[in-house]
Amino acid sequence: MKVKGEASQLRYSEAFRRSVVAEYERGLLNKDQIQAKYGIKGNSRILEWCRRYGKLHYPKAGALGRPMKDPQKQRIKDLEKQLADAQLKLVAYEKLIEIAEREERISILKKGRSQTIRELARTYPRQVSMFCELFGYSKQAYYKAQTQHYSVVNKQQQAKALVLSVRRLMPRLGTRKLYHLLKSELLIGRDKLFQLLRIEGLLVGKRKRYTVTTNSKHWMRKYPNLIKDIEFVRPEQVWVADITYIDTNEDGHGYLHLITDAYSKQIMGYELCGNMEAASTLKALQMAITNRKYNDNALIHHSDRGLQYCSKLYTDCLKENNITISMTENGDPYENAIAERVNGILKDEFGLSEKLNNINKAIHQTAQSIDIYNKSRPHLSCHMLTPAQMHQQKEIKLKSYNKKAQTSLVDV
Question: Is the pTM of this model over 0.85?
Answer without folding.
Answer: no
